[in-house]
Amino acid sequence: MSKKPFVTKEQVEEIVKTYPTPFHLYDEKGIRENAKALKEAFAWNPGYKEYFAVKATPNPFLLQILKEYGCGCDCSSYTELLMSDAVGIDGHDIMFSSNDTPEEDFKLADKLGAIINLDDITHIDFLEKTIGHIPETISCRYNPGGIFKISNDIMDNPGDSKYGMTTEQITEAFKTLKAKGAKEFGIHAFLASNTVTNDYYPMLAKVLFEQAVRLQKETGVHIKFINLSGGIGIPYTPDQEPNDIRVIGEGVRKVYEEVLVPAGMGDVAIYTELGRFMMGPYGCLVTKAIHEKNTYKNYIGVDACAVNLMRPAMYGAYHHITVLGKEDAPCDHKYDVTGSLCENNDKFAIDRMLPEVDMGDYLVIHDTGAHGFSMGYNYNGKLKSAELLLKEDGSVQMIRRAETPKDYFATFDCFEVGKKLCK
Ligand SMILES: *Cc1c(COP(=O)(O)O)cnc(C)c1O
């Protein structure tokens, strides 16, 4: 089974004349079609809004595209807030879903008028001390504990996760916030990551909607929105069936009508904070085979490394690989595809069946559009790549240049030695 890249060998040969490999390439057409489909899937809910999880793909050009479809930003750090503000997304179009939050971050979120989503009950006092008041609109993050299952499948383990408040805490938090003047309330939970099933959101919605009804009854607050957060996944492996966002939207609508509407809560807005689902499939890492090494195993060395895409090294995550121009060739060679870090887990694939790879071949590493470039780091002094946008008209726009040694040394500007290094 295989996956078809959104870029061809001919296109890549053209692109590399201007932008050398490795680079991350994004598919404007795919991003737009998907954003439109999401919007339509939740159009039944008048208050619906997607807050794109900026950490997945923090690039202002891409945030701008999503903004055209009504998306706001889900931020959890100071610089993510700055980036959101820089593209004109501010006020209640920012959801600030942070945890272990520094004072300065709360201050900036408040200054931008963001909706603040509190991760812990102790953050009520911390926030009030830091910004001098409690915002009128406020959200709390919920963690029901235990294990989150769909039928008999364990999806994730919320009881083990650092996020959110217990049932007792969120009840207490709502009472306290109400007493301190908060008027509009939100509930948020993120219980499972990268779910490739249409059932996750409706199941999560049921948990949250039932909590919302209970909280409204017990605390008398007005619940304005329920934030289903992220977690809708993508098929990284070719055999997985992609989620159908229409089915998911419809599933959430059903639960909404079963639980919220009879409780007189038919005015509640649904929010989402999708990251992976919005961008994952619409980005790829393009890299070139530069070495072949045969020892106890057969290795293909490429010009990208874990610095450009950390997921395989960090989680053992599968990313499909296409050798451009050999899409129809038999996958009859077994390789480890490696980067150049002095770190043995710097492998994009282990024991992967691929067509015979020749030096100079271009490899497309699929599904790097979310949590790809953004997880990058600078180990071994490796530099981060450029990000390019393949536009709908087939042209290519650079939306972030590649790092240079000067960028790498920039933080040594306090030392004399910096002057020589950064020349
Ligand atoms: C990471 C994150 C998201 C996005 O998660 P995806 O798996 O990319 O959909 C949404 N909300 C919060 C609070 C997050 O930390």
From TrEMBL:
Residues 31-279 form the Orn/DAP/Arg decarboxylase 2 N-terminal domain. One of its GO terms (biological process) is lysine biosynthetic process via diaminopimelate. The modification N6-(pyridoxal phosphate)lysine is found at K55. GO terms for molecular function: diaminopimelate decarboxylase activity. It holds the Pfam family Orn_Arg_deC_N. The keyword Lyase applies. InterPro entries: Ala_racemase/Decarboxylase_C, DAP_deCOOHase_LysA, De-COase2_N, Orn/DAP/Arg_de-COase, PLP-binding_barrel. Its cofactor is pyridoxal 5'-phosphate. The active site is at C342 (proton donor). Gene3D superfamilies: Alanine racemase (3.20.20.10), Lyase, Ornithine Decarboxylase, Chain A, domain 1 (2.40.37.10). Its EC number is 4.1.1.20. It is an enzyme of class 4 (lyase). Keywords: Decarboxylase, Lyase, Pyridoxal phosphate. This is Diaminopimelate decarboxylase. The lineage of its organism: Bacteria, Bacillati, Bacillota, Clostridia, Lachnospirales.
